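Below: protein 1.
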Amino acid sequence: MTDFTPKFDLAGKVVLVTGASRGIGRACALACAGSGADMIVGVRNRTDGADLVGEIERIGRRALAVEMDATDLDTVRKGVADAHAVFGRIDVLVNNVGLGPENLAENVTEEDFDLTVNVNLKGTFFTTQAVGRLMIAQKGGRIINISSQAGTVTLKGEAIYCMTKAGINHLTRCLAAEWAQHRIAVNSVAPTFIWTDGTRPSLAEPDFHAHVLGHIPLGRIGDPIDVAGTVVFLASPAASLITGANILVDGGWSVA
């Protein structure tokens, strides 16, 4: 008898989340663990991941923290290799590391430009390459890039950030086309403003908060779990025919 019930659990899967120590990355790691996955948490310093590892283990899943600094590709490659040595496979990669120094285009410095491009684009690409090689060898996997609505809409003072996130969206499509033959699905998730430690100071300002809400038809700022839920879906068997997609989790900002 055909089973028409979609499967959203990640039982038996090994998931690597980069930038996992806080915010969206932490929420994604906990959501994947809660859905049955064993977790690799990529953090800049291994001590940053100790609490998260403990929390995942209390859920009943295995967890390992590995050092991965997107500005130092040697640590990225070593982190991936160390994780693979422990678990023997990586089924899902969630590329969550990203930053965006805010400045009007006429005031952007070369230092800020290089940092944003190196972390958001170069770091994401070479992390994906390292894990993608393993997925090619194991004949399958899922790659989920955390993009931003900034890759689709314009944000004043965020020209370089917007540029890199648009680049992530197109990289997603390119890799989806190139790696489909290896049964690797590549998708991106593009959130609006999300309540995190990094955004809270700006969103706490009444004028800015009102400005942001004015662009979101659904009428609220996002929470990390809003992004994590979409990540779990894309990592799950229920999304097995989805690749090359960019899913906007923006409350309608991009269509308003």
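Below: protein 2.
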Amino acid sequence: MTTEFDLTGQVAVVTGAARGLGRAIALSLARAGADIALGLRDARADGGLVAEIEALGRRAVPLAMDVTDLGQSRTALDRAAEELGRLDILVNNAGGGIGGPAIEVTEDDFDAVWSLNTRSTFFLSQHAAKHLRAHGGGAIINIASQAGLVALPDESSYCIAKAAVIHMTRVHAVEWGEYGIRVNAVAPTFIETDGTAEALADPAFKADTIERIAALHRIGVPSEVAGAVTFLASPAASLITGQTLAIDGGWTAR
């Protein structure tokens, strides 16, 4: 029986799918019925994710996709549509930051953070939108961050880049709504992943983070982000566009 959360017959591309949030999102979309194209820095290093998705009865295609290489990324999106028959969903998950006080940020570091988080999201969305428009619409979900909603010390470049992604989400939603394309974002707090493990290993930092997650006072897990992404990709969210959902345990409500 189909439900409003069913993605059977749809094709999703997830960037940065090898681990952490990307891996959890890919699996969640597959459980909802979607076939998945996996954007990976090394297409041979999927960590068994292809097999996990295929075990769910879905198709999975690993793709070489360094999102800072726009030529390679556009080719990967085209290949996903060709091999899986169409493109319905893009999840712009790949991202990351370079820490340090704002007064010490170099031009190279700023440009690297902007390229990874913002430039890639803009131009991958642009290219994917052409595929989505050809099939009557679809969904783009950007992985922003609570760092785009509040100021985090020593994360100035990342905060700025993710704030731009949040406003980009609104702009693309307004422009592409006429094509049936919905564009939304999620803004997670600190989530237990390989990428946050080093910072959260510091007891003082972890305690401060848990305190700032003002309502629930705990670190999130990848499935809590993946479920929200799957909802935004699904027919259940058919009237939602241009929105950013904070998955932050109450941090930004403080």
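The chain has one domain: 11-193+221-247.
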